Amino acid sequence: MNKKFTYRVFSLFSLLAISVITYGQSMTGLTFSTYSGVSSAIVNPALMTGSKVFVDINVVGGSSFLENDMVFFPAGEKILRQVFSRDSINLNNGDYKYHRNYTYFNNTNDKYGYIDLRLLGPSIMVQAGKHAFALSTSFRSVHAGNNIPYEVPVLIYEGADYEGYFGKNYHEKNYSFVSMTWTELGLSYAYDFYERYDNRFTFGATVKALFGHEGGYLSIKDLDFTVIDEKTVQFNNANTELGIALPLDYETNSFNTKPFTKGYGVGLDLGFVFTKKSSTFNFGSGRKLCEKPYSDYIYKIGVSVLDLGFMNFSKNTEKHVFDNVGVYWEDYDTTHYDGIRRTIQSYSQAFYGDPNASYASDRMRILLPTVISLQFDYHLNKNFYLGALWNQPVKFQLNQLYQPAQVAIIPRYENRFLGVSVPVSVFNYRQPRIGVALRIYTFTVGTEKLGSWLGVSDFTGMDFYFSFKINLQKGICGSYLKGACFNSDW
What we know:
By secondary structure, the protein is mainly beta. About 10% of the residues lie in helices and about 50% in strands. The strands form 3 sheets. The protein has a 21-stranded antiparallel β-sheet that branches.
């Protein structure tokens, strides 16, 4: 049987989300630290005032994160070479060649795939007494599939020869593939609005301007179909919506970045932190930024809502709707896929009898990957801490980016010149992981999935992050440039 048939059968599943749409995670080794400064705003903007530094400048940083529970590479010494080899999945003359270096999870759980790339650009935080201000820049690319039916990776992997493939009805609802790449400019503010004895309450917020460079989604509200044979598919009902705003020419599929910004949006992070201080003494604000010493704590409890917001795309944008339609599609295997626009038109022709009937708008909206985050940090003794994190996604609609849930325990050791943390986490309530992060003065590097790098566990994804900073510590003004902190009220 023709291997191309497998791609064609499931092209409505992905209706360009796989063939057309080509990556946050929390970086706990960077955000859970008394020296985190501007980075703490990634998980909760209210954490900024509790840092040991009053000036924190992020020069450069970034993270690369990939995770899924559809397919995996079995554990082995050569696992990274397998993952990045062209022989893992190779295209030859338009047909898929399955070299079988990877396999799929053979269970009936709903599946997900998640890729998150984040480049942390120049950013700065300054604390003045009870107030902290930050200006941050970042470039983000997030791609997520959520609630994917379990049979999709199985059938794509097994191909047309899969036992029980023909004559079986598939009826699934409410899953989506969503992709977006954007630049983010954020303004953060934190304020210790109540501080008495050993209690302190802090509020924080980050307002973000978003500039969209790529976006796309396929939301499937209802899809009911039966594969009759390799040439015929019965679509009993299709209720789907597709939106694309891609750096491509839709006629030729050639790369085209103009215009570079295809949409604009806004984002908002909100957070509160309660701190139980280790001393009842209030040090006051001081006349100089560097003058107020650091106030140590017994524990902190924080709650935040992250990535509330949306992106509106209006450049090189198309939205298509297939509204509860069906068709008995013969000779399905002969359908040609010669470009994005002609592919969509072929489906519109089949379902509506008109190649342009599915077109609904030249605008679309994608929601950010909203999460509710809980943080806890306990100061065990002089240099040892124990943190905890719980991120729970909030889904408002199908055309929304989705960040899977995360629960983590983060023991760490830190002083001014060295920090080591070993986060132990469960991703999406399914996959246990162990990581490690190392900070040497102001350079941090870490991973939350060490097993993937060592090849000791099945490879379902990978994680890596780093940051290089310049910062100034609270309460020791005379140790810095005297013109700034010693002889002035700066």
